[in-house]
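User: Please run a holo structure prediction.
Assistant: Happy to. Please share the sequence and the ligand.
User: Here you go; the ligand is NDP.
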Amino acid sequence: QEQDSRKTALVFGGSRGIGAAAVQRLLADGYAVAFTYVSSPDKAQAIVNAAEQEGLQALAIQADSADPAAIRHAVTTTTERFGLLSVVVVNAGILRLGTIDTVELDVLDQMLNVNVRGVYLSIQATVPYLVDGARVITIGSNVAIRTGFAGSSVYQTTKSAVAGMVKGIALDLAPRRITVNNVQPGPIDTDMNSDHLDMLADLSPLKRVGTAQEVAGLISYLASDASRYMTGASLTIDGGGTL
Ligand code: NDP
């Protein structure tokens, strides 16, 4: 079931921030791109409209990564429209902070459901629809290496789990030459940390936060044929923040 040219991408969580930049970059790279969103229908539609104005193929699907049925629906909707998947980017993620003495059970469950279970189920749902030689790319975080702040234990737990799961899944899918890699950004200028950008820039060796486009550049490389010998890797892109 190999396609001649790898050409369809699905981005989980593509309406804002790093995911939106990944959608736009993959569109520019020549993919038909479907992406999911939850609470930003207007932003999702704007991305589709802008793509269509340029003659590019984009599709927005409302699907909460905490909901296994919604994940499966997103995958089948994408493949019915665009065919088998060459690239999957699992970007959807949430950040809730709190020290261990304050974290409520529903916060813990929500973070695990989106950032860990949702990542696993998203990849699992795509497996029957991946072309041989496809690319699976997760978005973890450099907090899997070093956090530096109290209050991030749950987030760190989830992103460490992603760095671990890509290794196991990479071995599972290696017989089909499907590669599975994890991008670990440091502080990036998105809504997720818009309240702390100055402080984060100050702490960075490069004295700035990163842009979503810079992360999308690494995603583009991992999606490309050039990355084909890399699998199970976690690649940190954080301005030297964990050095
Ligand atoms: P944003 O909060 O700016 O955007 C999150 C995106 O994910 C939105 O498109 C949102 O859709 C979508 N999303 C959120 N929850 C769900 C869900 N349950 N199901 C489906 N989609 C969902 O985040 P960033 O762009 O900053 O972060 C993207 C990823 O990068 C996350 O995994 C994050 O942990 C990781 N990361 C971010 C860093 C940063 O500094 N920004 C640093 C390291 C890692 P909608 O708006 O429609 O709800």
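The chain has seven helices and seven strands.
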